[in-house]
Write a structure and sequence with these properties.
alpha+beta, M1 Pyruvate Kinase, Domain 3, Molybdenum Cofactor Biosythetic Enzyme, Chain A, seven-stranded mixed β-barrel, six-stranded mixed sheet, 15 strands, 29% helix, 31% strand
C-alpha cells in the first residue's frame, strides 16, 4: 500500500506486546539503516516529553516518514513477509512549541530492533470494526452494554476482523455525528455499526445523526432489516435505521436490544463483505452469467 520509514535518535529494541508512539513528518527521504533520524521543528526528545505528559507513562516515541492519508487505524506495518506493528490509535497532540502534530500509537507484534531507521510497507489484512452503543444510562455506567460486544462477536464470525474498538455514548446527536466522522474520515475504520436510538422516542437521534454524515444511502440494507424484523414482531415497522457510506466506511444502524441486533445482523451480514470490497475499489464483476 505504501512505504513507511520508522526512525529513532538511537538504536531501539521494541518488544512484542508493548506499545510505541510515532509522529509523522513528511514523505520519506532516501535513508539507510546507518543514518540518524533527520529532525525538523521540535526534537524527538522534546516530543517524547510531551508524549510522556499526554499518556502519563513511559513510551518509545519514534519519527515516521510516510503519506499520512495511508496511515489508517488497524493497518499493519511489515517488512518482507513478517508483520511487526499494528496501528491502534491516531490523534492530534500538542508539541512543546505550541503547534499540533499527528501522534500515532502502534502495538508491537514481533520483537524488532530499529537501527536508527527501518523501512516497512503498509499492509492491510482483514477489516477494522467499530461499534457504537447509544444509551444515556449506559454512558453513565447505570446499564451494562451487551449489544456492542455482541456486534463484534457476530460480525467476527462472518468477516475477518483485524481491529476492533467500541464506544458508549449518550443519546446526543452532536456527539454521535462527531464520532462517526472521526471514525470514518480520521481513523479510516472500515465498518461502523451503531446500536440503539433508531425508534421514535424523544431521545432517539441515531438516524438523524447518520443521515447528516453519510454520502450514499443504501436502502436495500434498511429494507432487509425491516423485512426480517417484521417476521418477528409488528413493532419492526417502527425502526428508522439508516445504512450508508462515508468515504470508504460503511455505517449501519442497528436496534438497541441484543435480540434485535442478532436478528437484524443475520439479514444483512452476508452482504457486508461484498459491499466493503466494492466501496474500497474492488473492480471484479458482481455476478456471473
Amino acid at each position: 500500500m505504501g512505504r513507511f520509514v520508522l526512525c529513532a535518535d538511537k538504536d531501539v529494541l521494541l518488544a512484542k506486546g508493548e506499545y510505541i508512539y510515532f509522529y509523522v513528518q513528511a514523505r520519506a527521504p532516501e535513508l539507510s539503516g546507518a543514518q540518524q533520524a533527520p529532525g525538523s521543528g521540535a526534537s524527538i526528545s522534546s516530543l517524547k516529553r510531551a508524549a510522556f505528559q499526554l499518556f502519563n507513562s513511559s513510551c518509545q516515541l519514534l519519527t515516521c516518514f510516510a503519506e499520512v492519508k495511508q496511515l489508517k487505524v488497524g493497518l499493519y506495518l511489515r517488512k518482507e513477509e513478517d508483520i511487526f506493528l499494528q496501528i491502534t490509535d491516531k490523534r492530534w497532540a500538542l508539541r512543546p512549541d505550541g503547534k499540533n502534530y499527528l501522534l500515532f500509537t502502534a502495538r508491537v507484534l514481533r520483537d524488532v530492533c530499529i537501527s536508527r531507521s527501518m523501512d516497512f510497507s503498509i499492509y492491510k489484512q482483514g477489516y477494522s470494526l467499530a461499534w457504537v452503543t447509544l444509551s444515556d444510562k449506559g454512558s453513565q455506567g447505570l446499564r451494562e452494554d451487551k449489544s456492542g460486544p455482541l456486534i463484534a462477536e457476530l460480525v467476527g464470525k462472518g468477516i475477518d476482523i483485524s481491529f476492533e474498538c467500541g464506544f458508549v455514548l449518550p443519546d446526543d446527536i452532536y456527539e454521535l455525528k462527531a464520532l462517526l466522522t472521526h471514525l470514518a474520515l480520521f481513523w479510516g475504520i472500515d465498518l461502523i455499526l451503531t446500536t440503539g436510538g433508531t425508534g421514535v422516542a424523544p431521545r432517539d437521534i441515531t438516524p438523524e445523526a447518520t443521515l447528516s454524515v453519510i454520502e450514499k444511502r443504501l436502502p436495500g440494507f434498511e429494507q432487509a432489516m425491516i423485512s426480517c424484523a417484521l417476521t418477528k414482531t409488528v413493532h419492526g415497522m417502527i425502526s428508522r435505521a439508516v445504512v450508508g457510506t462515508l468515504d470508504e466506511s460503511l455505517i449501519i444502524n442497528l436496534p438497541g436490544s441484543p435480540k434485535a441486533v442478532q436478528e437484524n445482523l443475520s439479514a444483512i451480514l452476508p452482504a457486508i463483505l461484498h459491499t466493503l470490497k466494492k466501496l474500497q475499489g474492488d473492480k471484479s464483476d458482481c455476478g456471473r452469467i
